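I keep forgetting this: the sequence line spells out the residues, with the fold written below as integer tokens. I include a record here:
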Amino acid sequence: MTTASPHAHGVHFGRADVQNAGMGVGIVLMLVGVLGFIPGVTTQYSELMFLGPASHAMFLGLFQVSMLLNIVQLAIGATGWAMSRTEHGARNFLLGAGALYIVLAIFGLIVGVDSAANFLSLNMMDNWTHLVLGIVMIGAGWLFSRNSAANRA
């Protein structure tokens, strides 16, 4: 009788794949939130507003950002990092925050770029990126948690 290695069960570095994915997403989102406040990485930095479509600052020259959007990215990232301490928490983060990003994308597409309702300062690149990110996060949460510890037992 042979026993499968932990790698065969999706466990790496003492954490399950779903935890690694959740932590990775959380760290990237925190990094994006921090970098959104750094001139040079964010072009037209002098036009960075707290909220609303009047904020014309552009993260990496592509994504319209506001201070509020940067703070939201930081908060979601920190939540993901913290929740990814357990498999169940990481799965819930990836599924929940993924759904949140899809809702955010749909909201951005519905209200439009120049609308006063665009309080997070989203442009079309933000909307499509949030939609793809949400789908990928939900897919990762589902795919990596299929063989969770509860199912392996």
User: Anything to note?
Assistant: Residues 24 and 128 are 21 Å apart (CA to CA).
